[in-house]
Design a protein that fits this description.
Blueprint lengths: L2 H9 L8 H10 L6 E5 L12 E5 H8 L3 H16 L4 E4 L6 E4 L10 H13 L2
Antiparallel strand pairs: 1-2, 3-4
The structure holds zinc ion (2 copies).
The site of one zinc ion has 8 residues, from loops.
């Protein structure tokens, strides 16, 4: 993350840190059409030189970055499902003994941050 990424954030918060190249493209060539993305020709995302940028449709871009569109679609839907349908494990809160669920059973001990800080406070006071 260099200064370029900071600038990119300032340019367009919605598009995230990768939008610097979009800003550069817009500067030289005018607005990016709907459904189009700016591709880094040499695949080096830090090389935002205008000669390294190319406008193409989103699907062309996807195809370019994956061996097949099918495999990309698969991996990206797996990725979303991983978060959306993440298994939640039933746990008992160590502080209030209430049942709750968490996707991180090995890291989680309390139902809420309130219980966690309460428990830590008690622990500290008992020392
Ligand atoms: Zn690309
Ligand atoms: Zn609790």
């Amino acid at each position: 993350m260099g200064a370029g990424y900071f600038m990119a954030n300032a340019v367009d918060k919605r598009e995230g840190p990768l939008s610097l190249h979009r800003a550069i493209w817009t500067h030289y060539n005018g607005p990016i059409k709907d459904g189009y993305v700016i591709h880094h020709i040499d695949e080096n995302k830090t090389n935002n030189d205008i000669s390294n940028l190319q406008m193409m449709t989103r699907s062309d871009h996807c195809a370019l970055h994956s061996n097949s569109e099918e495999s990309l679609a698969k991996s990206s839907s797996n990725f979303t499902n991983m978060w959306k349908d993440r298994i939640r494990y039933p746990m008992i809160c160590e502080q209030c003994k209430k049942e709750y669920t968490t996707p991180f059973p090995d890291r989680s001990k309390f139902c809420c941050t309130g219980c966690r800080s309460k428990a830590y406070r008690i622990r500290r006071d008992n020392k």
